[in-house]
Structure formats: C-alpha cells, structure tokens
Amino acid sequence: NAGVTQTPKFQVLKTGQxxxxxxxxxxxxxxxxWYRQDPGMGLRLIHYSVGAGITDQGEVPxxxxxxxxxxxxxxxxxxxxxxxxxxxxFCASSYSDRGNSPLHFGNGTRLTVT
Amino acid sequence: AQSVTQPDIHITVSEGASLxxxxxxxxxxxPYLFWYVQSPGQGLQLLLKYFSGDTLVQGIKGFEAExxxxxxxxxxRKPSVQWSxxxxxxxxxxxxxxxxxxxxxxxxxxxxxxxxx
Lengths: 114, 117
Fold this sequence. Notes:
The complex is a heterodimer.
Chain A: E1 4-7, E2 10-13, E3 19-25, E4 31-37, E5 43-51, E6 54-57, E7 64-66, E8 76-78, E9 87-94, E10 104-105, E11 109-113
Parallel strand pairs in A: 2-11
Antiparallel strand pairs in A: 1-3, 3-8, 4-5, 4-9, 5-6, 7-8, 9-10, 9-11
Chain B: E1 3-5, E2 10-14, E3 19-21, E4 24-26, E5 31-38, E6 44-50, E7 56-58, E8 64-68, E9 73-78, E10 87-95, E11 106-107, E12 111-116
Parallel strand pairs in B: 2-12
Antiparallel strand pairs in B: 1-4, 3-9, 5-6, 5-10, 7-8, 8-9, 10-11, 10-12
C-alpha cells in the first residue's frame, strides 16, 4: 500500500505566489487533515475533513484553503504565500475521526517562502 | 484551554541506557493519549496509544507508556535504548468526551532524542 502520499517534497515560493500541496490516500479513510510543523511548536492543525464534501477549520486556518471532492484527495491551497507560511506540512488520514483509530501521516512537504 | 507539555526539548542517552520521556496534559475529562515518533525527513509513526483499561500500554519497537491520572501524565519508557531510536518524539492528546474528534487533537512540542554509541 502507498498509504498517504504528499507532493511535492520540497517547494520554494516567492511572497504572493499561490500553490497547491497535494495529498492522496489509498486506504479509503474518511478523515483527512493538514498540519504544519514548526520548530518547538509541535504540529498544529490547519484544516480537516470528515468525508467528501465536508471540511472544517483547525487551529491555524488563516491563509489556507481546502476542499474534498473525493475520498482519496485532500489538497491544501495557499492563495498568496507569506514568509510566515514557511514550514513543513503534513497530511494525515484515519479510518474515522473519533480519535480511536490511528492517524497515518505522509512524509511531508517542506515549503520555503522568500 | 487544553494543552500538552513535553518538558524536555532535547535528551541525550547512551546506547543501552534506559529512557523516560515526559508528557503532561491539562484536561478535565479522560483523554485519549498517543505517542508518535518522527525520524528525520519522515512523517510521524504511531508508537502506542491509551484509550482505557490497563494504564500501562505496550507499543512497537519495545516502548511502553504509563497513564497516571493523578499526575495528568503519560510518560514514554524504554528499558534499553538503541542507536536507531534517535528521533523526535511527540505526545498527543484528544479529549474523550462527546464529540471526540481528531479535530481536537493537540500535540506537544516534541522531544529530540540523541543516542550516543
């Protein structure tokens, strides 16, 4: 199984540019989420989805958009990149959102905004 | 507000020594508790979890953790550390109450483990 696949692995953007981070899972998981990881701050939830067509905001949603048109895919969009969005981004999925099934993580996308 | 604290940012141990990584949380209700490990350049992998029942839980790679309600702690232990255990370790908590959801999952700041040969 491929599990959770994130692309690209690395990306450099200039301030104001837009881009989409891709996330796909092949485990038929209903729950998918995006986290950002910054030194000394652990992982913080950006957006999450409990199924196709359903999304909600996490702890740090500003500057990011998401949509969930299929069960498999959950892209994260940066509409106008800012240096504060320099971070490592992780996508995660789980069979359910109820907290009692394990989260499966992708290998991350390292984003630098100059 | 709910919070998870890992007091140790960086721990260094010798190979073969015992290890304990600390995790404290502040919640009113009984939580679901997790420990994840992250190797360099990789995503997070679940080591173990506690939902209910026996407060000492066993995980993968020889790790165990003990839930102590009175101390609001969920410390991770390993009796003999290997060089391959060098990584960053994250404690995470989600409140076990009506509406429990990964949307409420909170991670600690992480503890970096260095292992000397």
